[in-house]
Amino acid sequence: MSIPHINNNSTTKIMQSNSSEPNLLLIRSKTRMLIFYKMYWKTILFLATPLLLLPLYFIGANNIYVTRSLLDCLGVMMINVAIEYCNVHKRIALRIILMFGCSHYRLSFILFFSTLVLSMWVSNVITCGVMIPLVRSILMELEKLGIIEVYENIDKDRRSTQIYKPTLFTSFYFLGIAYSSSIGGMATLFGSRTNQIFKTIFETTFPTAPKIEFPHFMLLNLPAALLLEILVYLWLNFYFLGMFRSYRDASLQMSMTDEETQYMNTLLSTRYQQLGKVTFHEAVVSAVIVLAAALQVTSNTLFTAYSYHESVMSHIKLSAPSMVCVVLLFIIPINLDFTKFFKKRTGNLELQTAPSKTCLNWSLVKDSVPWSVLFVIGSSNTVFEALEQSKMTQELEKFFLIFTSWSAPAAALIVIVLCKTLTEFACNSSVAHALLPHIARVCVISKVNPQYLMLSATLASSLPFHLMTGTPANAMVLAYVHIPPKVMMLAGFGPSVLAVLTVWFTVTMWSKAIWPDILLFPKWAEVNSLE
């Protein structure tokens, strides 16, 4: 038997392969990543493709498949189930309609900007998880009044086999909530994981540079967030409700007479009084929601203050606030009947013989949580984590080096468009974590202030408007009311163009007022700072 000849090139490749990798594949991680992408685009219709193919190609460590953001989303969806179980969202929905009326312009303005303000301090996942039950309850109350229809009419023979399709009004409200939760996150260091990653990478890469402080960051990005929110609000009203277009069918349903308004208010007041007093169940769930928001704010504060101390940050997990609150909901009962066991027994005292019902149980979670969202989020997180571990992100750095001879505003526009495109296909925090170190290196090579391009990439990565893979908020909204992906794809063109222009204006013009020397290449950004 003849022995096959092994040339020097193949021997070199084998010697360069990682000894810890399986011996079945003697090719580099970058080559495996290219093979994966060929298979990925052929099976793109299956959302869980990365979760199945990446382990087969031995790409990435095991911890990239179940991330903290995925667990955080699972915890928020469980809290969402608890909100619907206690019906506290119906009480709040009726109160909002009584205060602001049935006008879609007013209701959408209040809901969108409330989401914006809330997402400035907590993650967009928690913000969206709290708001979508409330919005759905408001729409259901408006449907009972005969003002709108939440879902399109479907033949009775087909209702049992087909998922309901939301109307334009439903898509308008829920997409507005998803977009507002992402826009609000760009305003502060606490609001988005992407902003925190930018602060950490910038301060560790350039240790002698000025620190990214909360007041300066908020002064820089809050006007952009407010401007973009107003523009997106007008776009969604124009696209879905026919604002400025009186011939649209949706715009014809926007007006009500004074008699109809008075009748609606009377009917809503009666329905609100029928709810009675706030129950212990509603009070507990409301308190847990406030606790989740408070824990999220404090954990974000610690992350921002001690992001460069690994000993401190090792004990702070992204999913901790939501998971702690979920455990409380599984423990706390819905009433105080169990306290009778601690009272003195009398003849009239009746003790319960069955276990107390809790604010959350497994049967509710199993039947109500949209599990498909977890596959979408897990897949989107996995792709860019595998890109980073397989060194494929170095190819993006080579692409950025093409524009080193361009002016700083032109290079910023290229970075904004590229990051805005990439964040539609992967989790925004994964995009920022993978690209920001390479963008910092490109800034040093091209003699551009690193704050200039890194800030452009950070803000652009926080604004996915087209696909459910961009952020868990988009996936939750689409799964909650079954919005077709095509609707979000088409509706997101306007916000995407507005986002690119707003971020570009913020970085190139408004940033000069906050950081006057942002156009100058500083001394702390020398090559030895990247070594």
TrEMBL record:
It is found in: Membrane. InterPro entries: SLC13A/DASS. The chain crosses the membrane at residues 39-59, 107-135, 172-191, 217-236, 283-306, 318-336, 399-418, 463-483, 490-510. It is a multi-pass membrane protein. One of its GO terms (cellular component) is plasma membrane. It holds the Pfam family Na_sulph_symp. GO terms for molecular function: citrate transmembrane transporter activity; succinate transmembrane transporter activity. Keywords: Membrane, Transmembrane, Transmembrane helix. Belongs to the SLC13A/DASS transporter (TC 2.A.47) family. NADC subfamily. This is Protein I'm not dead yet-like isoform X3. It comes from Papilio xuthus.
